Every structure is written in structure tokens, then in C-alpha cells.
Amino acid sequence: MDFRKCVLRSVLVGIIAVLCVPGVQAEESLNGEVIRRFVESLVALQPLQEKYRDAEWASGSIGKDGAQAKEGMTPMTDSLEAMRGHEAYDELASVVESHGFASPKTWGRVGDRIIKAYAAASMEAQQPGSRQQMQQALKELENADLPEAQKQMMRQSMGNAMATIKSLTDAPQADIDAVQPYMAEIERAFVQDSVED
């Protein structure tokens, strides 16, 4: 078999795997129906959270290896990873699957996207143009009559702030648009969740 046929066969096998293997399929589109199912699943999971309130993973800060959970905009995925292997994971799987999600992993990825889009929309509503304002401030810093060491320190501080803003606002516009009509429901689900704590 020549090299081209071998490569073509490998590509075809890869495509078939992506199309046929559960969990490897494309991300679920974020739309009103998916967002409603996610929010409803959060409400349905509140008794489970109460039941396992004292579990190490329930605080959201300790992973299953005892290390601090990683920071970032994947809170649902991180929480699922922390609870993997605990009996609550199977109970959670049952709830999220009853709300139309293929698996906890799919539910977690959808939740991460919803939370990231919610954070981006909230930040833009509360501080419109914050990223542009920070970029303008960086430009002004370059022209400021300050010692280079002070400029460098300010650049680093502003760079850290920019990275934080970017991580909170770097959601696809389609996700932000999908979440906008459901902001109040999402907030209620999370506020209710934290009030229960």
C-alpha cells in the first residue's frame, strides 16, 4: 500500500470514529432549549448537593487528588472531575441525563459555556468597553512621563488585569447572544444554589 492510500485510510478511520463514537461528536449548539434544560438540571441537582454537603469535592476547591482545583472558566467540568469516583457522580449522571444531556461530561461542557457567556454578558453590562478602556490606558502609559521601572510594573499589573478580563469575556458571541434572554433564570439558579450553602 502506498503512502497516500495509508494516509487516506487513516483520515477515513478518524472521520468514522468521530461520527460513530458517543461523546466524540460535535458540541451541542447553545440555544434556549439547551440553556433551559441546563438551568432546570441545576435546580434538580440541589437536593443532591445538600445530601453530599460534607463531601470533600462539594466545596469546589479540592480535587480528587487533594490539590486545589484549577482556576479558569471551566467550573462545571472541574467540579465533575473532582467528584468522579464518588457515589454522587452516578446520581448526578442520572439527573443530567434525565434533562436530555448525553453524559455528565457533555452537561459540564455546556455548563462551562453558559457560565462563560453569562460572565461575559454580565461584565459587558456592568462595565461596558472594559477591555477597550484597558487597552487605551496601556497606550497612554507608553506616553506617560514616568521612569521605565514604574512603567514596567504598571504594564505587568495591567497585563494581569487584561488577562482576567479576557478569560471572563472571551466567550463566542453566539453563546453570549443565546444566554442573554436567560440571564435572570441563570442567576436565580446559581443564587439559589449558593443560598442553600
From TrEMBL:
<protein>
    <submittedName>
        <fullName>Uncharacterized protein</fullName>
    </submittedName>
</protein>
